[in-house]
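pinned: reference chain
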Amino acid sequence: MTGVLPTTRTTPFDPPQEVLDDPRPLRRITFADGHVGWLVAGYELGRAVLADQRFSSRLERRRALIRRPRVAEFRGASAPPGFFIGMDPPDHTRLRRLLTGQFTVRRMKALEPRVEQIVVEHLDAMAQAAPPVDLVSAFALPIPSLVICELLGVPYADRERFQRDSSVLLSLTATDEAAAAAMGSLMGYLTELVARKHAEPTDDLLSGLVAGGELGDDELVGVAFLLLIAGHETTANMLALGTFALLTNPEQAEALREGRAEVANAVEELLRYLTIIQFGITRTAVEDVELGGEVIHADESVAVYAPTVNRDPARFPRGHDLDLTADAHGHLAFGHGVHQCLGQQLARIEMRVAYPALLRRFPTLRLAEPPEDVPLRDDMAIYGVHHLMVEW
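pinned: its structure tokens
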């Protein structure tokens, strides 16, 4: 395959047809800047790349498969302070270590009663509204936004500002000027927030990091930036797109509603099937590496294309079907290796609570518009739907 990766999808839940039509697990592809690198579409090769520290995550080495606003990807520049996802060990290790204890299974499980309360409150509000209702604005976006705000110590009243800026930074169509303005706005806001945590600490993750004294203010701002965006954008899009998938597969929705599909397994299958990090996970070789019978030369970039990796028939025999009872463990929707998603347990808790609660509260929930009219986020770095009008 040559040329920039396509973004338009023929069907809302499948990767672009041009990618699906090529069965090779490893092939050449041209990145957005003209660099000729590699696309990994096979499961075993994808895991191998993400687990191999000969493939670097450093931001200054990273190349993009799709064109994005320059400021949003920091093209050619080293990672700003605190942006640990754009670092390799030992810098990545130092920052990640400070955060890992805050996102353990035990700590996330302790948040479950609060997540349940938030979900019920938003379902109550939906029930009082006259349908049709936009599920994105009424349910999918506010739930993870409120949870991550409470966890980090970000005032939820400021959500319009950070949601707006996040949306611009994830857009594939925003201008460089718009992205720079959004970056400046969000970083300025978080700089002010860190200063307030110094002056008036509260019982939250960001105040704890401030009190720990191991991070400078620039690093605190960078860490908060990553956690805030990832903490609401990813789960919000999974909740909305997952509901869309369930409503267009009513037998699967019914299996989840009636308990015939186990909730935890259903969430893993939705994560695998939808894989909303739609343009893959990019690494760059720091030395020559043999992979799948080919030699990846030093400084060549490799994109692990998660949407097809998670449908590789060698690992998921019926990968193109949504089956909430299928074994979906081992999927790479959260990545793999040292950079595996820090907040994955929080996302799982939110989805395990939200999906069944929504379906049981509204047993006649259905789309209020034809499926082909639902606006897809193929213009964003994180896939999903812009709006999802539902009724009951």
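why pinned: The mean pLDDT is 93. Strands lie at 26-30, 36-40, 55-56, 133-134, 281-285, 289-291, 294-296, 301-304, 366-367, 389-391.
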